[in-house]
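Run log // design_07
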């Protein structure tokens, strides 16, 4: 088998077919980089899709960046954001006219419809109301996950989207990452035989946990959403998507074990800046994380003048939650969480979300009747039991032209590209993560949380 035919057999450049034992046996090199082929359903646009961003934080910035690179495809024509600095940045970046700047999402909908779509990247508890209003007014929607904080609200959005015939794309960006796209493709083509079970692991990384789920916006599940949805609905969704069978039952365990007042070290203070005696040796020191390492400072809304950053960071640590002791917050999110799920055809999955790791990046093991897969989003290793040969695939994560590794293994901007095409063509089939497709993994999350709290196995009914 020559190299060209071998690549075709492996589906690296033209779409996957079965990776046979014979193909593996004839492989002279067992490691290949790959990119995904262009979607044949994409069409040139006669004019850009127009959109309004509701919530100009991190995710709104990421999705809006597609318009900066590809203004002929997407144009951001409005922004709603109560934090002046973020509002101003988006206005300048996208050249938004003054009349299309708003402080709150409610202000946007006081105007007649003036764009094709809205991008909802507001806090979790502010997804439902603007989404329902946008649907009523005839907008298509790109909706940051989770869909909404409750099962009823998720189902309400789905029902209204169907009634109005609008597109609601949910930002399950891992479905667009070349790594997971290839994994699903190969499983569907029988590369490892009949799928039996999956083990999936999300290491949050200890300082990320402290940043987002102890000090940060998602520290309290009652004010936002449970961590299984706020952080890991991505993971429940990708498990479901890869297996491609209905979820039947779920059971979950986990709790908040470490970030509690009783674990505060002797000599610690309410803030890291209050003369804490253990701050220099604490792995969660806000001074080390934000002031010295300058890590994750986007949440601090620093001015453009970098000469003022040190002063502003220290002021933020003295006045916001980001400077508070991680053991003295009002947080209630579990710092370790495990779930077991039964799917159709008796396929099982185990998922573990762990705060206390020195690293991040999802890890997955897929067990099949004729082989297995092991991967970490950087590399996917397929082993054939019959030949005992292995193949290593490395996604290049080129995203779209001009970008590399924009986020979530390249999935962030690949999602936006498909959403733009879906809106332009009015064809939701161009998206793999419509609300119809995404609702099941959210139900899995709600049932997991109920199982964890009530210590029982929950049925999943869609």
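design_07 sequence
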């Amino acid at each position: 088998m020559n190299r060209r035919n071998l690549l075709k057999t492996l589906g690296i450049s033209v779409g996957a077919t079965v990776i046979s034992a014979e193909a593996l046996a004839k492989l002279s090199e067992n490691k290949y980089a790959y990119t995904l082929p262009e979607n044949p359903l994409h069409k040139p646009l006669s004019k850009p899709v127009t959109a309004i961003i509701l919530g100009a934080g991190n995710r709104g910035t990421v999705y809006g960046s597609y318009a900066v690179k590809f203004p002929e495809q997407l144009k951001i024509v409005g922004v709603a954001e109560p934090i002046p600095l973020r509002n101003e940045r988006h206005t300048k970046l996208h050249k938004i006219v003054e009349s299309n700047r708003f402080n709150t999402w409610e202000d946007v909908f006081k105007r007649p419809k003036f764009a094709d779509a809205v991008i909802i990247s507001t806090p979790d508890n502010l997804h439902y109301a603007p989404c329902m209003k946008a649907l009523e007014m005839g907008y298509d929607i790109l909706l940051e996950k989770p869909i909404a904080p409750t099962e009823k609200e998720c189902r309400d959005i789905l029902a209204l989207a169907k009634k109005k015939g609008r597109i609601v794309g949910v930002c399950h960006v891992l479905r667009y990452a070349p790594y997971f796209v290839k994994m699903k493709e190969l499983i569907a083509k029988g590369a490892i035989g009949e799928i039996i079970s999956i083990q999936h692991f999300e290491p949050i990384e200890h300082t990320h946990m402290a940043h987002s789920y102890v000090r940060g916006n998602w520290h309290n599940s009652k004010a936002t959403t449970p961590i299984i949805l706020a952080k890991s609905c991505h993971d429940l969704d990708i498990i479901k998507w890869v297996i491609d069978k209905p979820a039947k039952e779920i059971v979950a365990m986990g709790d908040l074990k470490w970030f509690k007042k009783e674990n505060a070290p002797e000599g610690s203070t309410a803030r890291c800046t209050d003369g804490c005696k253990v701050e220099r040796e604490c792995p969660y020191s806000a001074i080390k994380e934000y002031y010295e390492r300058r890590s994750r400072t986007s949440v601090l809304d620093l001015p453009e003048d970098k000469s003022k950053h040190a002063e502003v960071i220290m002021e933020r640590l003295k006045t916001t939650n980001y400077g508070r002791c991680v053991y003295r917050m009002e947080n209630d999110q579990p710092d370790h969480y495990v779930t077991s799920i039964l799917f159709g055809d008796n396929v099982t999955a185990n998922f573990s979300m762990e705060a206390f790791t020195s690293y991040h990046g999802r890890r997955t093991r897929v067990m099949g009747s004729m082989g297995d897969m092991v991967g970490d989003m950087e590399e996917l290793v397929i082993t054939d039991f019959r030949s005992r040969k292995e193949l290593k695939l490395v996604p290049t994560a080129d995203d779209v032209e001009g970008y590399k590794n924009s986020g979530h293994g390249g999935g962030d901007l690949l999602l936006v590209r498909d959403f733009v095409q879906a809106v332009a063509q009015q064809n939701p089939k161009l998206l793999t993560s419509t609300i119809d497709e995404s609702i099941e993994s959210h139900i899995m999350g709600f049932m997991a949380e109920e199982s964890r709290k009530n210590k029982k196995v929950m049925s999943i009914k869609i």
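Residues 1-28 have pLDDT under 50 and may be disordered.
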